[in-house]
């Protein structure tokens, strides 16, 4: 009905290109407009002003000869004040943008190593955006933003990179484990050394206490029992200790200690050997 009356409706975020006798006449903005077809006016086409997105997948090679697929996402829109340029100058906007993206990516990525491509993807996106902005502005389009959304190396390369990363982490874990075991062994050795040192102090104090006790016993017995010598007292003490030792051995059913020689008369022989040794040492001095 609108066409019969010479009226046309333009939707929001859209413009209509109006021609008269096949020649561009004006750009119609959203709303209702008069289109007198009987005067040669006609609608040449519609042009959306909404933000559009184009995802471009580009395969290229890095400086270290690794093939990668770089996925770029370009967000663009037509400018209302240049709607006639956007409508007439380009027949396929998406193909034109894709060609520029291919050109920039294939000129930038081959200069970088694979690891640098991942690190400098923002710089690559900025280079693509600058080139597109410079080229597409002449055709009535604005490049809003360009993003490098994905970088996909060859499947074999990704597997090799994962294996290298896993090996490095395993090596680091092995080093940490070895360092921990080293620390444990050092601490254990320090503990054993400290334990032996304290045990030595205990044994030395024990022997000193025994010597002090024997000395006090000999002196006390000699003073209380006239006519006894230090030798007699020492022999008695040795015999007493011998019986105490035999008693402790016999009291334990699981004892593995054996006192050789174990006869009472042997204690006298042991005492004689100790005394003779002490006398010989004194004589040599």
Give the total of beta strands.
Answer: 8
SS-derived structural category? alpha+beta
Range of strand content: 15-25%
Q: Give the topology string: H per helix, E per strand.
A: HEEEEEEEHHHHEHHH
**Could you say which overall geometry the principal axes of the C-alpha atoms support?**
rod-shaped
The termini sit apart by 142 Å
- Largest sheet at a glance? 3 strands, antiparallel
- How many DSSP H or I helices? 8
Q: Which strand order do you get reading across the main beta sheet?
A: 3-2-5
Low-confidence stretches: none
Helix content: 55-70%
Instruction: Provide mean pLDDT, rounded.
Output: 80
Kindly provide the radius of gyration, computed on alpha-carbon positions and rounded to a whole number of angstroms.
52 Å
Give me some keywords for this one:
285 residues, alpha+beta, 3-stranded antiparallel beta sheet, 8 helices
